[in-house]
Amino acid sequence: MLRNAISVTEAGKPGLAVELFNEAMRAGTLSVRDGGFFNARRAAALALSGEPDEAARIGTASARVAREMKSARTVRVLGETLQTLARWDSRPAVREFREVLRVA
Q1: How far apart are the C-alpha atoms of 69 and 77, rounded to whole Å?
Q2: pTM above threshold 0.85
Q3: Distance CA 53, CA 31 (A)
Q4: Residues 5-41 as b or e (16 or more Cβ within 10 Å = b)
Q5: What is residue 86's DSSP assignment?
Q6: Domain count for the chain
Q7: Domain range for residue 44?
Q8: pLDDT tens string 64-95
Q9: Among 13, 17, 38, 96, which residue carries the largest CB count within 10 Å?
Q10: DSSP for residue 11
C-alpha cells in the first residue's frame, strides 16, 4: 500500500496518495525509521494537495525522527517537501517545519 501511495503521488494524484498513506500508517506496523520516512512521503503528498499546515505538522514530526535516526534519505524527502511549501513560508507551521528540518 505504501508503494502504491508513492506511485500515486508521482502520477499526480496526491490527494488519493494521502488517503493511502493514512490508511497504511494507521496499521502501526512500521519501525520508527520507516515511519519517519513514510511520514515524510505523506507530508510531500499533503503539500502537493494544498494542505500546508498538515504537511508541515507531519513534516516536523518526521524531521525529528530523521534527526534521531540520522536518516539522510528522510531529510532529502523533507527538503523537497519544504520546497513545495515555499509559497506558504509565512504560515507558522511551515516556519516551524523549516527550523526543525534545518537542525535535522
Answers
A1: 15
A2: yes
A3: 25
A4: bbebbeeebbebbbebbeebbeeeeeeebebbbbbbb
A5: G
A6: 1
A7: 2-103
A8: 999 999 999 999 999 999 999 999 999 999 99
A9: 17
A10: T
Contacts (Cβ under 8 Å, ≥6 apart) of 98: 82, 89
**Which grid cell sits at 96?**
516551524
Q: What CA–CA distance (Å, rounded) separates 25 from 31?
A: 11
CB atoms within 10 A of CB 87: 11
CA torsion angle 17 66 62 22 (round to 10)? 40
User: What pLDDT sits at residue 39?
Assistant: 97
Cβ contacts of 95 within 8 Å, gap of 6 or more: 89
**Alpha carbon 11 to its chain's center:** 17
Is 30 in a helix, a strand, or coil?
Answer: coil
